[in-house]
Each structure stands twice: as structure tokens, then as C-alpha cells.
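User: I'm putting together a teaching handout on how multi-component assemblies are represented. Below are the sequence lines for each component of a complex, exactly as they appear in our records. Could you produce the 3D structure of the whole assembly as C-alpha cells, so the students can see both representations side by side? Please keep the chain order the same as the input.
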Amino acid sequence: MIDPQILRDNPQAVRKSQEARGASVSLVDDAVAADSARRSAIGEFESLRAEQNAFGKTVAAAPKEEKPALVAQAQELSARVKAAQQVAADAEVEFTTIVGSIANPIIDGVPAGGEEDFTLLREVGEKATFDFEPRDHVEIGELLKAIDITRGTKVSGSRFYFLSGIGARLEIALMNMALDKALAEGFIPLITPTLVRPEIMAGTGFLGEHADEIYYLPADDLYLTGTSEVALAGFHSDEILDLEKGSLRYAGWSTCYRREAGSAGKDNRGILRVHQFNKLEMFSYVLPEDAEAEHERLVAYQESMLQACGLSYRVIDVAAGDLGSSAARKFDIEAWVPTQGAYRELTSTSNCTTYQARRLDIRYRTESGKTTPVATLNGTLATTRWLVAILETHQQADGSVRVPEALRPYLGGLSVLEPVR
RNA sequence: GGAGACGUCGCAUAGUUCGGCCUAGUGCACCACCCUGCUAAGGUGGAGAGGGGUUUACACUCCUCCGUGGGUUCAAAUCCCACCGUCUCCGCCA
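Assistant: Of course. Below is the structure of the complete assembly, with chains in the same order as your input.
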């Protein structure tokens, strides 16, 4: 939900943002109209209601013999109040619907356009080269008996897998390394629910454009989350936070579930795109004026993790049309995947400014004591998908895989993953 | 899954019998000032959330909110219905 105030003060800024996203510009004018319609309807209703309240006291205080006549008048008044209330309620719904469908105004500097129009911010690390024919992660996973896709498919269908042996250990090691990183930076660890109520799912903005990506359990009216961001954002919903002692930062670990409905045929091989994976997610609640600095901080943490894993990557400023409706800016980090000869997304971090918080009703107190929405940001610190880049980047001719130094302590000191015969 | 009890403005509670002086009282905690005088007590005042109007702002004013959503009524914290949640007991249990 955008700030209704900027609709009144600066609708042009919202129009520009909608245009950069390739979204509807006329929606902004509809919203402005709906806002003024709503406000005049509210005024109408409230003055009638005030009249009714005052009249009610007269009725209550009147002597018995005068009551019937007064009640008759009150009935007439009541009918008018009811009608005005209905008009106001309808106007409110209309306003909320229109305003709710306007995306978060992008931050200056975000490139306009779609998926291909991102801005490349930097490329870091050397792309791995091999003096042998490199194997892809599926093949390596089989040699190491680390990834069992055949059995995953047998048990649960396509896009499912087992991590086994060293594969399972590697994922836990990665998650632990990420958790230690988060702890060192002052994040509070949380293990979050992965089933959430509809209002939380809607509040985080996932029921909009991502609706068909989400698993839903009709018998219980619950949604399976595709990221712990949902629970982390819902964690403080309907609360007034104390940010005087600093930002609130959480590191949420959870399994994530995605239907991948729109991606049939895409990334079919391996574990690059799956229905279920694990993720450690950072989530920050900060003062609105600190949001952009926090965003830079989250990217820095992500980069330090990728560097610790010895990966080559690039950081991109995602184009407006490729942002979710809640994000005002998003940085993706894509790691180089040798056998694909391409960069693939390993992390994503979004600055949702006050958009998400306004919808979830998460506020703080300003110096004057007024409440106003906080800013929220989220970003990946590690996911199962990283195994793809790690295995492929550090593979050796004999099928073994060198373990990045930073990861070794989490694997009992193991420095090389050897094929299992 | 079954039965019962309950849900009030930070916390604790009054109010629900029998709808209308509830514009929701009180205590604790909180803030300002006063008095006292020394890690305290007392006094006075202030202080919830959301939204309109009017304001540069302060202030003022109106409406809404008693778990949520409906309903009955001229009028609902109070009556009715549904839902959500908490607690107690029973049942079941990876």
C-alpha cells in the first residue's frame, strides 16, 4: 500500500514510477479521484452520525409520553445515517482496491523496463576455468552421492530431490555458516512457521502477482510460504515498534515451497529450480530514512557470503518492471555457473520502504509521538541453490570437489569431497 | 475431535444481570510540574489506536474502535449469529 499522502501531494512521482514499471499510469488518476470521493463520503456520513448521536441523548432523556414521537423522528434519521454509511463504506472499498493495486514507487536510479533492462553494478571474482570437461552439478551430485534426483522424483514427483550423505551435510554446513554470519552482524535467529494465514500472505503482497506460485491448503485455509520473508514480515504485524535502540534484524531459517507453475520446461535439470528448498533469510525493520543504507548493508553481507564460498558473481540493480509490487528497489546477486556459461540468481534483496509495513500495520513513534510506518527490507543469505554453484565451481578432474576454506569448519575440517564408489 | 469457561483503551481489573447519565471507571506503570527532602511518599495535571475537518505548525473539533465480522434496535461493551484466539478437562497421537 502506497502512502495516500503522496497521491495528494505528488501524484506525478507515482505516475512516473508506474510508467517505468510498465504498469498502469491511469490508475494513479483513478486513485486520486477515489480518494476525494472517499473523503467527501466520510464527511457526509460523520456529520449525520454526529446529529444522530446528539438526538439519541434527547430520546433517552425525554419523558415517557414524548418518546413515541421522538423515536419516529429518530427512525427517519437512522435510515439516512445508514444510507450515508453504506456510501462511505463503498467508497472506502473502492479506494483501497485501487490504491492497493498501485505498486511501490521506485527509488531514483532504478532502471526502467523489464527483465533484460537491469543495470550491472559490479562483477566480482574470476570465472572458474577448467583444463578438463567440467561436469554439471547433477553429475557431480551423483558421483558424490550427494544429490538423488531419481528417488526424489519417485517419492514426490518432478522438481523434488533428496540431499544425501555429503550433500545433506554440505547444505547444513552452508546454513550454519550463514547463521554465524548473521549472528555476527547482530541478527536475531528465528525458525519460522511455513504455513500462514491468508491475511499474512496478502499483507506481504504475495497473493497478488505470485498467487499461482503458492501452495494452498483449502481444508485449513492456510498457505505454504515460498520464503520465510512472509513469516518474518508478519512477525511484527499490527505492532508499534521501538526502533530507538536501533534497527530490528532477524535471520529466519525455513523450508520454502514453490509451485513453479509458470516455469514448465525451464531449468528442468538438477536442483536449480525446485518445489522445496531451504533458505536463511535476513529481514530488517528500520526507520524509513535508514532504508537505503540498510539495503547496501544487506548486499554487503550477501557478497561476503558468496566470497567466502569462493564464487564468482555479479550484482545487478533489477529493472522496475521486474520488481515485485512491494519492492522499491531490488539487488540480485547472480553467481557464475560454469556448465551453463551463465550467471544464475543466488540472492535477492529488496527494499520495500514503507509499502509492506503500511499493509501489515507495522509502525514506530516519531519524536512528536505520532505513529508512522517503518521500512522493511529482506534478503537471502543462503539457499539450497548455492550448492549448484559451489559444486560446479570447485570441481576437479577426478570428480572430487574442493571445499572452500570458510566452509571447512562446518564440515569437520573436510577439505575435499571425494566421489563415492 | 468433544465439553466447558473466557476475550474491555501498555498491564491488571470494574462495567454485561435488566440496552440509554459509559463521552468506558479504578489501580499499577509512564510523562510534566508542585511539595517534601534523599535511592521513597504525597499533590496537580497529562497521557490509547485509526480516520475526517481546519492548520506552516501547535491547538481545536468531529467520527470510529470494548477479540474479528455480521445481525437486531431510534440507540449495543451490554442482546443474537458466525469466526478467531486463550485456558481447563476428556479423547487421540507420528
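A couple of points students might notice: The domain at 115-417 of chain A is CATH 3.30.930.10 (BirA Bifunctional Protein; domain 2). The first strand of chain A starts at residue 119 and ends at 124.
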